[in-house]
Design a protein that fits this description.
Layout: H1 3-15, H2 19-32, H3 37-53, H4 57-74, H5 77-93, H6 97-110, H7 114-130, H8 134-151, H9 154-170, H10 174-190, H11 194-210, H12 214-231, H13 234-250, H14 254-270
């Protein structure tokens, strides 16, 4: 068997949302990689992201660390940088921003590739937004969009607009957030990325709640929840369930709100 055929098959399954099949082919490619450090780092990093999407943090981090080691030993700067980003994203999901920032800042010392450096800036922007550093977040997001456009990376453009919109949402600028997040959704459709489309849909729902459009917000939040439940993405499922509780509270249905919040808490505890 050719390990690159296994890699191609894995990527095809991943794009179709067939995660178990994708992982099986990635593991097959890993077992056949031999001394091919590029291939080994690639399939380990890709596995890390799939386990991340399932909120399997320890497994994701261990795979990303192995990808980093393989790339570093072989002097593969681009692969090393991408593996560091995969490691940092686990830290971000856990709220360990201080652990993520140094890894992301190292990326610029390893590569000048606009897609990869754009990813690092995008994640630094997301961290700045979480910390309430709005001006810094905006600067990182805008620069990441510029680099993604230079690289022709539509998925990255969608990610950056999503997180820029999320930052606007967190700062109470609901109208701007709706506009940015709708652009993110459009970019996600162009990139044929259902996970990112669902994420943008969830965030649009929260922005619409801020403008008082509660019925449309609830409908969109449930669409996103359905996707994340089917995909096994507990992290995003928690956010949808929490949001649906918030929407019920806004509509003065406190009993229903408590039910959604209890579900969110149970889901959060189940994924650590």
């Amino acid at each position: 068997m050719d390990p690159y055929d296994e890699l191609d098959a894995a990527v095809t399954h991943e794009r179709q949302g067939e995660v178990d099949d994708a992982l099986a082919h990635y593991r097959a490619a890993e077992s056949l990689a031999g001394e091919d450090a590029w291939l080994l780092s690639e399939v380990l990093r890709r596995q890390a992201y799939l386990h991340h999407a399932r909120s399997e943090w320890d497994t994701s981090l261990a795979l990303a660390q192995r990808a980093t080691s393989a790339a570093s030993t072989a002097g593969l700067g681009d692969q090393h940088a991408e593996a560091l980003i995969a490691m940092s994203w686990v830290h971000v999901a856990r709220g360990s921003f201080d652990a993520a920032v140094p890894e992301l800042e190292r990326v610029a010392t390893l590569t000048e590739d606009p897609r990869i450096t754009g990813l690092a800036l995008h994640n630094l922007g997301a961290i700045a937004a979480e910390r309430g550093e709005w001006d810094l977040a905006r600067a990182h997001f805008m620069e990441s969009v510029r680099r993604f456009q230079l690289a022709g990376y539509e998925r990255g453009v969608a990610f950056a607009h999503n997180n820029y919109g999320r930052a606007a949402l967190d700062h109470g600028n609901f109208v701007l957030a709706v506009d940015l997040l709708q652009v993110a959704g459009s970019s996600a459709r162009k990139a044929a990325d259902p996970d990112l489309l669902a994420l943008a849909t969830m965030n649009v729902a929260e922005a619409l709640a801020g403008t008082g459009e509660l019925a449309q917000a609830e409908s969109m939040a449930k669409i996103a929840l359905s996707h994340f439940t089917l995909a096994g993405n507990g992290w995003r499922r928690v956010e949808c369930e929490r949001l649906l509780g918030d929407l019920e509270k806004q509509s003065d249905r406190e009993g229903a709100a408590r039910e959604w919040w209890s579900r969110a808490l149970e889901t959060a505890r189940s994924i650590g």
